[in-house]
# Entry
Amino acid sequence: MAKLTLLAPLSGRLVPLQEVPDEAFAEGMMGEGAAIDPAVGEVRSPVDGEVAMVFPTGHAVALTTAEGAEILIHCGVDSSQTGVFQLKVEAGQSVKAGDLLLTFDLAGLKAKAKSALTPVILTGLPEGLSLEVLGAPKDVTAGETPILALR
# Structure
């Protein structure tokens, strides 16, 4: 039984992390996880937790759960200077699974970034737990489809 299940933070296509065209993400240097090719420009919280950090450019949000999991959602690759993101949360804020974290112009992201693929990674995994990707590739719906499980 999973200790913690992460829901899809974006609607789109869940793919293996290795498909992200960035060595740090694809080779797991930042942590384990998966990526989503977004179909809509909304990012929702995959878990109940706290916003640990927001990047000033709006392209990434870090969350922490009560279980001690640290999650990074990084919208696109080489996307920080695209100017297409609008944060809807701030550091220290409590969130529930499905809450809106940020929005972005999907067409703008695809035009300006190296890739729109969005890594969802565990930068901190609670001791004694392992991560399981729940079926990539597959289509996912933000706030509804389970994508990662900590066991």
